[in-house]
Amino acid sequence: MLNVRVSPGVRKFAGVLALFLVFSVSAASPAPDKVTTFKGEDGWKLQLNGEDYYIKGVVWGYTPKNENYSYNLWGESEDFIRKVIDYDFAMMKAAGVNTIRSFATIPPEWVTYIYQEYGIMTVINPLMGRYGHNVGGKWVPVIDYSDMLTRLTLKADTVKAVERYKDTPGVLMFAFGNESNYGLSWSSYEIENLPVGEQEAVKAVYLYSLFNDVILASKKIAPDHLFTIVNGDLQYIDLIVKLCPELDLLGSNVYRGKTFTSLWTDVEKKLDLPVALFEFGSDAFNAKTGREDELSQASFFKTQWQDMYANAYGNERAGNSVGGFVFEWRDEWWKYKQTENLDVHDDHASWGNGGYSFDWVNGKNNMNEEWFGIVALGDPDADGVYTARPRIGYDLLSQIWHLDPYALDKKSLSRAFKAIDIDELAKARKEKDGSR
Predict the structure, then answer these.
(1) Residue-range domain boundaries for the chain
(2) Distance CA 147, CA 57 (A)
């Protein structure tokens, strides 16, 4: 899943001053934080400067109406960028978000600004050719990972990105690719169904060996950082075990429904590494009723996070869950056709997934790409920043994210989740928003 224009030079002096302050703060910043993994008798943890850290994250991006994946927030004025960040990240901080993943390349100074102003860290995620790459001066839309020039180019460009961010305060870790194992068969910006079988296994050997080469080279220049990949579910896990010994943890995009079923134990048995979910969640549209369905989305969030917390360190299960990133912060109105109807919130379902039982009908699509936000895309405010309308899922996650999975034993975890009443949250949200 994924997400240049330059706005007029309004308030130039304020913009220059804002950027000067960002750079000044960055220059005076302490050394980058050290993130490590820890393994004990009860499983795995992430630790930030020696303190336990559980990822409570969202996939974040900013795409206005009438724009698509080509929109570049970072080409706007510094003043406008700061207003967008201040709007979104104040809401995230209030909810308890501590980490973001973004498909866009956030400039280092803004990674640090987000961290210092809101306490939210960023995963740097070079896509390593997932949606095409410039190789030998030519744009290549579908990558052949066996081609030597392509391998050298992707390695050099990715290591260069690591070099750029290795000393940036606010970087949690580096993650490479995005469901690149699915891109061996096809590529698109939409969530893909898991391919049937593993017919592309020969191609996958080249992919995972390249991942390991890049991680090995990156660790030499950024030894205090963690490195992972963003795999599509657990496809090719046997190849990952064999070809990616340098992984610090396993990153995976997982859309299995209300829980993650056997994922935790499968990784524990085969890979014995901590697991971070780089995408998961539920859309907020019901393909059966043809209406927005915040209650079902929130219900899925609740069981998914309970499953994650139950498999965290010390909760008597696999003990390898170290958090994840809900897909996604805000609805993206370009996802269905990508270049058409960019001012329309499309309700066409793109693909089918039986794990999402609330609107699953055999033989029909039920996954609505433009409705995955925990907040809905609103209208621009007086500053031109697009507003965000919180859904019930936002309120529910706010309660979940203020829990510490490492401080909850099995019984207290069950009680804490049982106490979160979705119907009460829906009632409170309706009172806040008025009738919709």
Answers:
(1) 12-433
(2) 35
